[in-house]
């Protein structure tokens, strides 16, 4: 089972587990949303609240 989260830009990020999803989300922010500054804690909180199993 994979974990996924929707980005407001329309991308759906999918990874094998929460840690991999965090790394993917961090990379997505760097590449697609460089102006959106999120701490690791803020990003992990968003994932904890909004990530789902797929």
Topology at a glance:
Elements: E1 3-6, E2 12-15, H1 18-32, H2 40-50, E3 52-53
Antiparallel strand pairs: 1-2, 1-3
Helix pairs in contact: 1-2
- Overall morphology: globular
Strand-and-helix sequence, N→C? EEHHE
Stretches with pLDDT under 50, minimum 5 residues: none
Percentage of residues in helical conformation: 40-55%
SS class: alpha+beta
Number of helices: 2
- Report on the biggest sheet: 3 strands, antiparallel
Radius of gyration, rounded?
10 Å
Compute the number of strand runs: 3
Read across the widest sheet, the strand sequence of neighbours is 2-1-3
Overall pLDDT score: 97
What would you say this structure looks like, in words?
With 54 residues, the protein is an alpha+beta fold. 48% of the residues lie in helices and 19% in strands. The protein has 2 helices and 3 strands, in the order ββααβ. The protein has helices spanning 18-32, 40-50, and strands spanning 3-6, 12-15, 52-53. Strands 2-1-3 form a 3-stranded antiparallel β-sheet, with helices on one face. Strand 1 (3-6) and strand 2 form a beta hairpin. Helix 1 packs across helix 2 (40-50). The protein is globular and about 30 Å long. The N and C termini lie close together (6 Å).
Name its key features:
54 residues, alpha+beta, globular
